[in-house]
Structure formats: structure tokens, C-alpha cells
Amino acid sequence: MTAGKPSVLFVCVHNAGRSQMAAAYLTHLAGDAVEVRSAGSAPADQVNSAVVQAMAEEGIDISAEIPKVLTTDAVRSSDVVITMGCGDACPVFPGKRYLDWRLDDPAGQGVDAVRPIRDEIRGRVEALVAELVPGSS
To answer: What is the pTM of this model?
Structure first.
């Protein structure tokens, strides 16, 4: 772990939905106990508005977030890499922990369809926090 603090990178294709929600939840739930990054293999121009709305319902504002391009350095400097539909575009380095979260893609969906995806992500992030930050639950 980097400087005693675990580092997690969430990756999806557009970095406009799933990875943004996961990063926001991890930041919200773990605070500064975990270094959080998100990126996309083909980032969109902006975060999905239905995703922004669904997260606002949880009291988490991601309206200022901007999709970022996935870099080799981001993967190299992360302890845990969680992919969400990234496929073969994600670089693989030995010694990293990789998880693949199979989740529906919120692209083109309304907020009603995004809520169950958001809730699934929250549950997975809560489990991750319990694992990475002992005594956090």
C-alpha cells in the first residue's frame, strides 16, 4: 500500500457513470483513509446528468467532476484496480489487485434506471471500505 494508505482506481469506458459513482462513494465513506481515482478508457465530455442527479439524492455532489483518461501511471500507482466494463483496454501490472464489477451501464438511462446501479455500487463500496479500512464500519 502506498505510504500506508491504500489507493483505489475505478475504471469504466466513459468515466461518466459507474466509476464516478464508485469514486464518490469511496471518498464519501472512507474520507482521506483511502486515495481514490477514477478514469475511463474512452472518457466522455461530461458526467452523465442522471448519475449526477442520483448521487445528489444521496447527498453527494459530483456535478463538478470531469471524466479523465485512463493512464498507465494511474494503474501503476494504484493498489486496487476495479474495472466496470473496461475490457481489454485496462493495462495489467503484476502485484496489483484487480476486481471486475459487472454492473449495468447507466449511459442513456434516466435516473429511475440509474438508482439500482447506484445502490449496487454503494453496497460494493461499503464492503470494500470495510476491507481496506479496518474499524471503519
So the answer is: 0.92
